[in-house]
């Protein structure tokens, strides 16, 4: 057994007992109340999930196992003291609740390199889709096709005891994370570079290898990918991709099914699709108003464009959030990255200008709970700066990253032996009866 599994076994035994005790001895404890408006506006703020990997505070943003983004940028192992932490380190932290050493991170890099060979039929499934199909369609289909390899599914059919489900879940999770960059890069090269596929380089870390397989081999892009894959990795349990993955796997569907389902949720325009939509939206605006700086008359042009867009019943991608009530710290981290490494970039200037223009317009509507930018407002402009301007692909990159958090959590779902998730629904008559109307 590898040492990560040994640690999980030890920690998992203790925590499983705690979860069992809480459910049994404290089962009647009231944790929250639910209002009519919460049920009818997407269950916002209703505590109903157990997620250990990260926690989101509306005012302070995400903390991964208690650590903020700036703290982790300092504390997680890096290859170069000036660079960005390796996402492997964040996975280790989320999975084990321990800050990793550089050796721990290297262990994961090596494991993922060993496990990164994608079965041939996965590419056949992707190739069966027309190249015009959306990258996220290809990505989720590819992940579904990987389910043939599920060790969890096999073990379940063979009747392994429930307390051991997590062992093969961990194996599936490690294989899935190892292979996602290869699948994503394959889709990228198939769609945008005539199918000229680049094999992985065993000397590179997980993020750099992804950049390499996409065709970008510079320290600058490696650094950007390490940051990108770190920042998008997790956002507690209630976001659509995390919650879907958790829900589907609660039926003991294998991790490949569960993650493919999560990815179909990530593909929605109110969730991860915004990652790509921001750049399409800005380009559309610039086509209409022309190249612009951030002088007063240019800000006015942007504001008018924003207002007209909203008047058509559409949302401004990259702004707003279901939980956050401040500028997303993931946005701030990317802005700092741009300030440190990038000079004179028109698209980034426009993104910075939007920060001044969009929130007051959204505030003026009187209904938007959070007018501030989210993670998606910045990422596309950084990728575009380094030449990765095929914005239709960005949500796939988000999907590679999101695996780190939600799949670490999935291992814990099985360690805790969480049961099938099955909330109660009611009819409209029932809601009317409650209101007495
Ligand atoms: N532009 C225009 N209107 C907005 C925006 C926005 N960016 N954000 C919220 N609103 C509207 C929203 O559509 C709703 O209108 P109505 O009552 O007419 O249906 C109203 O404001 C209240 O919505 P909120 O309660 O503030 O937001 P909610 O929690 O429902 O939704 C988002 C959160 C993130 C879905 C929403 O802010 C949005 O659509 N943002 C743009 C899309 C986006 O950037 N999504 C990415 C989120 C992060 N991620 O990566 O997943
Ligand atoms: C995410 O990263 O999942 C998004 O910010 C959406 C969310 O947290 O609801």
From TrEMBL:
The lineage of its organism: Bacteria, Pseudomonadati, Bacteroidota, Bacteroidia, Marinilabiliales. Its EC number is 2.3.3.16. Transmembrane segments: none annotated. It is an enzyme of class 2 (transferase). The keyword Transferase applies. It comes from the Bacteria. Belongs to the citrate synthase family. Pathway: Carbohydrate metabolism; tricarboxylic acid cycle; isocitrate from oxaloacetate: step 1/2. InterPro entries: Citrate_synth-like_lrg_a-sub, Citrate_synth-like_sm_a-sub, Citrate_synthase, Citrate_synthase_AS, Citrate_synthase_sf. This is citrate synthase (unknown stereospecificity). One of its GO terms (molecular function) is citrate synthase activity. GO terms for biological process: carbohydrate metabolic process; tricarboxylic acid cycle. Keywords: Transferase. The keyword ATP-binding does not apply.
